[in-house]
Write a structure and sequence with these properties.
Layout lengths: L12 H6 L6 E6 L2 E6 L3 H21 L3 E4 L4 E4 L2 E3 L3 E4 L18 E5 L5 H14 L3 E6 L4 E5 L7 E3 L2 E4 L8 E4 H9 L2
Parallel strand pairs: 7-8
Antiparallel strand pairs: 1-2, 3-6, 4-5, 6-7, 8-9, 9-10, 11-12
Helix pairs in contact: 2-4
Length: 188
């Protein structure tokens, strides 16, 4: 089955979910614009996994919410469905979300850059995550840096040594040694 024509069409999350699965492709829609991306590389997955391990330990210890790893749908509105690489959702009525539809709010969204994802991650997804009120990290494995965006930021904070995250309700910050993280993930 071929891909439907996309020129001038405002996609919905429901339409994207109805698309046939295509091995090695990821489908997302942001404000009605369809994005088709290749599957992630091993380096991308190693970095995402190391981040998830560290973030999960912190979020559990601080009782902040739940950490998930893509592909997992976040659908803040009917014309948007994204799959962050790693994301933190707060409890829903004091419990874990039962499905992705309940994950309407994010505390943290993390995207690991791939060669084909720069514009989408740095511009389109950044605006979306800022609009959602989430802190947003764009992780560049090649440069071994993290761009941090907070909801009201006009410019990224570029970090290459460490990053500290202190979400509301946390007793202490999560501090990550970025050189150690990238070494663990990439120097195999």
């Amino acid at each position: 089955m071929g891909m439907p024509a996309t020129q001038g069409h405002r996609w919905t999350a429901a339409e994207v979910r109805a698309l046939p699965e295509v091995p090695g492709k990821q489908f997302e829609v942001i404000d009605g614009e369809l994005f088709v991306s290749p599957g992630p590389s091993y380096a991308h997955q190693y970095v995402a996994a190391e981040l998830m391990l560290r973030i999960t330990a912190y979020v559990r210890a601080q009782h902040l919410g739940y950490v998930l790893m893509g592909p997992g749908d976040v659908e803040p509105d009917p014309h948007t469905l994204v799959q962050p690489d790693v994301f933190v959702v707060p409890p829903v009525q004091g419990r874990a979300p039962r499905d992705f539809a309940e994950a309407e709010r994010l505390l943290l969204a993390v995207e690991v850059l791939s060669p084909s994802s720069g514009r989408k991650d740095r511009v389109i997804k950044r605006r979306l995550y800022q609009r959602m009120g989430a802190e947003y990290w764009i992780v560049d494995p090649d440069a071994r840096v993290v761009e941090r965006w907070r909801p009201g930021d006009d410019r990224a904070e570029l970090l290459d040594e460490r990053i500290a995250w202190t979400p509301a309700g946390a007793g202490e910050p999560l501090t990550l040694d970025l050189a150690a993280l990238f070494a663990e993930a990439l120097d195999r």
